[in-house]
Structure formats: C-alpha cells, structure tokens
Specification:
445 residues; alpha+beta; Outer membrane efflux proteins (OEP); five-stranded antiparallel sheet; efflux transmembrane transporter activity; MdtP/NodT-like
Length: 445
Amino acid sequence: MFKYAFFVMLALVFFISDCAEYKPLKINNAQINKKTSQIDKKALESMPNGKIILSKLENDEPLNENDIASLALILNHTLKIERDNLQIAKAQIKNSQTIPNPSVSADTGFPIAGNILNTYNSYSIGLSYPIDWIFSHSAKVKSAVLEYEAKKLNYDFNAYQIMQDAKITAANVYYLEQILKQLSDKLNLYKKIYDTVKNAYSKQLVLLSDLQLAKNEYETSKLTYLDTKNLLDKQNDKLKEVLGLPLNVTLKVNFKPRYTSKLPPLKELYKNIENRLDIVAYRLAYQAQEERTRLAFIQQFPRVSINFPFNRDTSNVQTLGVGISIDFPIFNTNKAQIDIQKATRKKMYDEYISRIITAKFDIKRLKSDIENIQNQLRFLNADYENNTDLLRYYNQAYRDNYINIIEFYKNSNDVIDKKINILNLEKSLYSMQIALEIASAKKIN
C-alpha cells in the first residue's frame, strides 16, 4: 500500500508541476562585436518610423529633430537596460501572486525486535499546507504592482530626459559647427595680420615686438580653433552614444535649435511639479514601501500550517487525522524587519519632500539664468548688427586709405568675436530651456 501511494505521489508531482526549460545565455565575443559595431536594425524596424530612420542612416541622409528623439528612445543603451529592469519588476508581480505549494511527507517503519509475530510494516503519509500566507498575500501583490507602476513611470521620465539630452547634444553639435566656421574665419584673418606684419618687419617698418604680438595672436587663434574642433568631435561621439549608434556610423543632422523669448511666470511653472513623471513614480514607490511596512507588521504573527496525516501502525490499525502547527514567536518577533521598513518609509517620505523643494529651487534658478541670457542676447545682437554695419564703413575706409589693413582685420575679428559670443549664449540658452521643461514638467513654447 505504502509503495503504491509513494509512486502515485511522485507521479502527481511530475505531472502537476509546470516546469520551465533552462536555456543558457552565454557571452559570445563574436555576437558582442556584432552588436557594438553594427546598428540594431531589428530594434529599429520594429518601431513605427524606425524603417524611415534606418533608411536615412544607410543613405547618409540628415536626421531631423523627431528622428533624433525617436532614435534615442529606440536604441539608447541605458533605456534598453531599464526596459530589462521593467521585465524584472513585471516578473516580481508574478512572483508575488504565487501561493505556497502543499507539502507531502511519507515514511515507513519495519518491526525488527520484540514481539513482532503477526505484525505489519508501519507507514505514514501526511499532507500539510501553510495558511498564514493568506493574511500577507494582498499586501505582497499590491506592493509589487505599485513598484512596477513606479518603475514604469520612472522609465518614461528617463526616456523623456534621454530624448531631450539627445536634442541638447545635437544642438551643441550645430552650435559648435557654427562657432568653428567663425573661428576658421578668425584664424584666416590673424594669419593675414601675421603675414602683413611679417612683411612689414622684413622692410623694417614695424618693431620685433609687433611681429611677436601678431605671431602670438595667430597661434592662440589656431589653438582655439583646434580645441573647438576637438570638442566638436567629442560632441559627435557623444551624440552617437546617446542615440545608441556605433562609433563607425556616419551621422548627419539637420537640426536648428529653437527657443522661446518669453517664459511663463513662476507660479505657473511651479503648478505642475507634483505631476512630474519621476515625482509621481516616487509617490507610487512610497506607496509600495507603505505596503511593505504593513507586510512586516503582518508577518510578526506566527506561521500556521494545517496537516492531514494518514498512519498505519505495526498492528495494522489505520488512522486519518487532522492537525495544526504554529511557530512560537519567542526568538524572532519580526521587530527588526519592522524597524527597517519603518526607517525606509521615513527616508522615502523625506526624500519625496526634498524632491519637490529641489525642483522649485531649480525652476527659479533656471528661469533667472534664462532671462539673464535673453537680456545679454538682446544687447549683443543689437551690438553685432551695429558692428556689422560699421564694418562696411571700415572696409570703405581701408579702400580709401584712411585706415591700414591691420586695423580693418582687427575690426573684422571683433565682429567675429561678438558672433561667437552670441552662438555660445544661444547654446546655453537652449540647454537651459530644455532643463526648465524637465524640471517644471511643462512645455515651454
């Protein structure tokens, strides 16, 4: 009887259980090299406008602002990892929904001494099931669901930030290209000044100090040009990194940054802070922590299991019983876990308040900085236009021999310097406007 019952139990275990198949995922160098040197075409083609972007990349066509944002969303490596984390959080929900398995125990005994005439082999079969999970199940599930929702919102916020970062990096590339053109013109002008002074020195028309000064200005201008060119190369590499593209890909961008001339009042910028995706996500994470704290209190109660033993003794008396087992909370009353969860909850509460306060300070600072740059730009643009007009008069004065060529070149350089200052300020202004949109969760038109 016992033998047959044991085999029946084993058969039930194998037929009832839904076993997953293990498949190893090994790091393969050839596969890694392929992924790091080629565009992930499969990921691109799976997205609505991914095929169009892929076609532009393969045909060396320029990408627009929307292409840049979409590409960052699809291929950015950080977002890929966060999508994996979302899958883990989703699996945690499934894990929280599982209920404990029943336990089956079996044992047998053989009479070996004493009055063993007409005795039988004894055996015992028991079925037990824990029932204390019923009290904590809903809290576990709710905590896992809230944690997933928080991570999903946090992913959305990070995706938005990365798309904006891609646009800022593309804007930096645009402005650095414009600045490099100005620096190239400036370098050519200083080269002409240096050649002119050098020629004048050979005719003993100027001093050696004048020649040295012209040479220093030319070399300084050359170093500035080379530094800016190096910075542009780094920004191009950074743009590829943000977009999730390999270094060997040729990338062209057709993107002229736009920025607003008028900002909303502070009160309006503050209004939407608590609806910012990362803050909503943190609020959900806090609610998940609240459930974990409640769960810690629930789990201080002892574990309870019910048992249904079936026994046969050596005299062939068979019994079927029912029992209950309860853990005695003598050494572990779950107080330490309760303290940990309460402290974590308090930390998250304080951090939530801190995020709101930090956001308000960031918004106020960014608005002030943007308005300051806008005022500077208004002045510099007006000054640049005046100097551009004056340069025409300097050009005519040089032709009429009222000023020498060096004076004309230096005035031309002054105009170039003003244009470079304007471009640098516009670059900062665009980045700050994006930062203000992120901080306030409000589109700045």
